[in-house]
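PROTEIN DATA CARD
Card holder: Probable membrane transporter protein
Chain length: 239
Origin: Planosporangium thailandense
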Amino acid sequence: MALFGLAALLVGFSKTAIGGLSSISIAIFASLMPARESTAAILLMLIVGDVMAVWNYRHDCDWSLLRRLIPSVLPGLALGALFLGAIDDNVLRRVIGALLIVMALLQLLLRWRSPTRGGLAYGRTAAIGAGLAAGFTTMVANAAGPVMTLYLVAQGVDKRRFLGTGALFFFGVNLCKLPFSAGLGLFHAATLTRALALAPLVLVGGWAGVRVARKISQVRFDQAVLGASVLAALALVLR
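Structure generated from the sequence above:
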């Protein structure tokens, strides 16, 4: 139960401060529960964190960035749902790890090619690709955080715009995932009970994240969101 509690705290903290840390929570849940069931359990906690993040950063969303992503997210969700319904838990665990590793490597490549903020910018085609990847990875593994990190860091957005845009994006995407997950039969009474019990810890983590985000510098913030995604990938693959 302690590990579940830690995962819930990290979910809240990641939603209001360092986004990549939510992938560590995904790794914890995938190691303690059947992989398929874990995606539904953590989805409910992610939505709790989303609500807190949207409220705290409601004035900081960059709608122009979202408009480029949204058209391709739904097809990505549909592809992810088809994939999720066709594979077993062992394969899904490997897929979750592989997705996070690929995203982490892409982020390291971004940092190597563009050490200064905003050195790379995504055009329309790349934004469509990012939307598809975000929809697919979030449906399969709740792991679109690294995709969004890559996209937003490449755009050179400041930390509050990063957090505000990500908060609204993930709130909308996670709500869209609910009917997909329900249709796949992933919600059970035990899953709902566990999510309800852990929700207060998500809020505590979110409260702490808001305060950290206020104090951390922009450079440290960029480094932290990239580093957290790398750690998340390693936590799942090496568990």
